[in-house]
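Fold it.
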Amino acid sequence: MPALVAAGSGVTQDLKIAVIDPNRIVEESPQYEEARQTLSAEVAEREADLVDQQQGLDRLGEKLERDGALMSEEEVKRLQNDIRARKRRLRYAKAELQEDFALRQSELRTKLVKQVEEVVRQIAKEQDIDLIVSEGVVYFSERIDISADVVERLKEEFQNRK
């Protein structure tokens, strides 16, 4: 690696610079896949419940349409009120699921980012790297890309955890 001049020092030093591709690291890490599966499983059960609620609502609507003419005015009003209340609860449940999903997704992403940052720091120390650049890089040589090292370490940590 060429010698670089440290800013303002007038001293020439050899600096070791590396780059990481955060998208590659996330996509290839087993921690990301596990988080994605965990989130999907958490959401699937609640989505199934919402589908059941919607189907029940649809059946009530069909009943009102089919039998409304044969029902008393009081029965029709009661059924209409029940349908309105269920629609309101369903809208609330959908909004709550979206909020919970976004919050949980953010929590899992934050946890993964912290793991990646820790691994990057460990590798930087082990390889005596002075600077690691991440996003906003226009070009970098494969020679200085340590993304594969980071992914490999994340895989090791994932395996050791189990």
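The two ends are 39 Å apart (CA to CA).
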